[in-house]
Design a protein that fits this description.
amino-acid biosynthesis; pyrroline-5-carboxylate reductase activity; Pyrroline-5-carboxylate reductase; 2 domains; P5C_Rdtase_cat_N; EC 1.5.1.2; 8 strands; Rossmann fold; binds (2S)-3,4-dihydro-2H-pyrrole-2-carboxylic acid; binds NADPH dihydro-nicotinamide-adenine-dinucleotide phosphate; ProC C-terminal domain-like fold; alpha/beta
Amino acid sequence: MTEPDGAAASARPSVAVLGAGTMGEAVLAGVLRGGWAAEDVVAVVRRPERAAELEERHGVRCVPLAEGAARDVLVVAVKPQQLDALLADAAAHVRPGSLVVSVAAGVTTARLAAALPDGVAVVRAMPNTPALVGEGVTALSPAPGTDPARVDLARRLLAGAGDVVDVPEASQDAATAVSGSGPAYVLLVLEALVEAGVHAGLPRATASRLATGTLAGTAALVQRTGEHPSLLREKVTSPGGTTAAGLRKLDDAGVRAAVLAAVEAARDRSRALGG
Ligand SMILES: NC(=O)C1=CN([C@@H]2O[C@H](COP(=O)(O)OP(=O)(O)OC[C@H]3O[C@@H](n4cnc5c(N)ncnc54)[C@H](OP(=O)(O)O)[C@@H]3O)[C@@H](O)[C@H]2O)C=CC1
Ligand SMILES: O=C(O)[C@@H]1CCC=N1
């Protein structure tokens, strides 16, 4: 693959998303948000009704695997358990010089490279579902020795989905446990906060708006001030006040230990899925 330059600098390498379920669609939306034109992006799916959804929502075409796998950049977004079958079917059509970005939890770049033709650049990425609205964060790890220009292309590809953080591949399982799975933990807390608000007498719509705004605003506060979460938490906690009373209950329930256990379990599961 040769990247365009000079007069054709606005042209972008063609992209195929192989397996466009929840995460594949979120990455696809990010790619389009990042400046790729819909005609330069295709998806490979198995069901006609899914093809119709993607075409309607994003204006992209769905194509057979043989056509999609011959694109410049392949985003592999099937389940880890579906990966071997997909790569076995795709390998004959993948061109040397193309870039494969896999978002499959646990699956190493070595395993990906072994299933692909020589000369294919491989990057492992762990995005998360807020990518769908451009607010995701992706942990990125190229295979050892990958051409920096290919890594930069992977970074640009994912930048439309949100922040991109370089991590050593050995940290990918931990990153998966924190940010890949993280939206589920946060949503569980949000769900509980809304229900608690309803229990405390608030109308559901009001509880939802207050709780959701609190989560979004707190994340923005941390990002924009750069202050440590514990310092910001102290600022909310008046001596003898309401917050201290609430935090006491969270400590009694072992919330910190539960978060630690959740991340450890998710990291271990990521390792196991890698095979
Ligand atoms: N969900 C998340 O938050 C995140 C997921 N990931 C990773 O993303 C990957 C996908 O996960 P997720 O999106 O949740 O799962 P989904 O089941 O939603 O998506 C997988 C998609 O792959 C399709 N598929 C499977 N095999 C083929 C094939 N041979 N040809 C074409 N399409 C195929 C499935 O089609 P069909 O619908 O017909 O079964 C499905 O649409 C996983 O590897 C996961 O680890 C990474 C980060 C976050
Ligand atoms: O649950 C999973 O396995 C995937 C990977 C990270 C988020 N969802």
